[in-house]
Specification:
alpha+beta; 2 domains; fatty acid biosynthesis; biotin; OB fold (Dihydrolipoamide Acetyltransferase, E2P); four-stranded antiparallel beta sheet; Biotin_BS; acetyl-CoA carboxylase activity
């Protein structure tokens, strides 16, 4: 089997770089086998400035002027200052890099909302990666307490998606 030319490899790498930019990815790695002793390993990554990642959560409930028993649950539901959602025991993290979709198609109802009860295996959202729609199932049964991503937003591997308790 003839070895591919260097020009073919350069064109392939350029195509990967374009794919990286078009899909707003930070890294892409591919192994291309040409034969038994002939392969090409490529890793294309984009340098990004270390900006703090933003998480979207529902606004905390406003407390009534009179401090009563009704305001205690609202205060308990509000996240603590400086709390890292990824360290929460009920955090559902992203298994891949991609674009998050909270609904099956534009205009359709969201798969889940804050307060919904879910069973293990229920679809929580979709992550699109390399033109493939990946349904993300609930890892356990519980109640959705917080949704930390925005529909159509980018997500990194291991980033917290939502909290299920």
């Amino acid at each position: 089997m003839p070895k591919t030319t260097h020009d073919d490899d350069v064109a392939f790498i350029k195509a990967l770089a374009e794919l990286l930019n078009e899909n707003d990815l930070t890294e892409l790695q591919v192994k291309r086998d040409y034969g038994e002793d002939d392969s090409l390993n490529v890793r294309v990554s984009r340098r990004t400035e270390a900006a703090p990642q933003q998480y979207y959560a529902p606004a905390p409930a406003q407390q009534a002027p009179a401090a009563g028993a009704a305001s205690a649950p609202a205060a308990a539901a509000a996240p603590a200052q400086g709390e890292d959602p990824a360290s929460h025991p009920g955090a559902v993290t992203s298994p891949m890099v991609g674009t998050v979709y909270t609904q099956a198609e534009p205009g359709a109802p969201a798969f889940v909302s804050v307060g919904d009860k879910v069973s293990e295996g229920d679809t929580l959202l979709i992550i699109e990666a390399m033109k493939t729609m990946n349904h993300i199932p609930a890892p356990r049964a519980g109640t959705v307490k917080r949704i930390l991503v925005e529909d159509g937003g980018a997500v990194e591997y291991g980033a917290p998606l939502m909290i299920i308790e």
